[in-house]
Amino acid sequence: HLDQRIEIKGRDELAELGNAFNHMTQQLLKMDQSRQEFVSNVSHELKTPLSSIKVLSESLLFQEDVPVEMYKEFFKDINSEVDRLTAIINDLLFLVKLDQKEVPLTIKNTNLNTLIEEILKRLHPLANKKNIELIYESFRDVYAEVDEMKLTLAISNLVENGIKYTPEDGIVRVTVDADHQNAFIKVIDTGIGIPEEEQDKIFQRFYRVDKTRDRETGGTGLGLSITYRTVLLHQGSIKVNSKEGEGSEFIVRIPLKQSS
Ligand code: ADP
């Protein structure tokens, strides 16, 4: 039983061994709990779109003389629920691979300024829809040893969130800078912000500050976990500063050179 503890009094070495054992069982217990939580989260996340599909398809099946427009509308909804399921499963598979370090990084010396500019170019239409100004600021040319595709995905998640969680007419600013050892990428928005007590939880899988609203924004709840894992694989770190109602700032630090 994992919740068993060893009581050892007496010789120092034995007491130390006992402590190490107790520590290890605590760790195993935690891992087991987080695994159970993960499975229950996954099931819940998959069940929600499945229930919608069920309701929509049943109402078409069992209703007589369904007007064509209704068919079209319901199938459109079914189709977007299927897209949602696919997105969740794809993100999950990618995350599991990242966790198992099954996806080796393809490291190349990369111009981060270009990398960010490409991301912003791709996300401009999304920002335009909400009349959000996307600003890019570069303080110097920064080259770093990174996996271009994976870092692109990681930073895109942050910029997409910036746009998602900022009301119309807001600003999302992305800056690139470096010192002798590290590159710094900041994604700053004028959005809804994240309450202080939630700030260290948002990197957990499926964690959302506002369960119903944030699900409606169409995300999978896995974006930040993917970003976090990717940055960690690059031996970097990620930090968030945020104030509710004022905005958020995500700071990514990536070493310029990867030590093997
Ligand atoms: P989601 O797909 O729900 O956006 P993420 O993993 O990307 O999932 O983010 C987790 C949660 O963190 C979001 O649901 C949201 O509550 C919060 N969040 C992330 N980025 C921001 C931001 N820029 N501003 C406010 N809240 C944010």
TrEMBL record:
Domain HAMP: 1-33
Membrane topology: Multi-pass membrane protein
GO molecular function: ATP binding; phosphorelay sensor kinase activity
Keyword DNA-binding in record: no
Keyword Kinase: yes
GO cellular component: plasma membrane
Reaction it catalyzes: ATP + protein L-histidine = ADP + protein N-phospho-L-histidine
Domain Histidine kinase: 41-258
Main location: membrane
Protein name as annotated: histidine kinase
Assigned keywords, A-Z: ATP-binding, Cell membrane, Kinase, Membrane, Nucleotide-binding, Phosphoprotein, Transferase, Transmembrane, Transmembrane helix, Two-component regulatory system
Subcellular localization(s) per the UniProt record: Cell membrane
E.C. number(s) listed in UniProt: 2.7.13.3
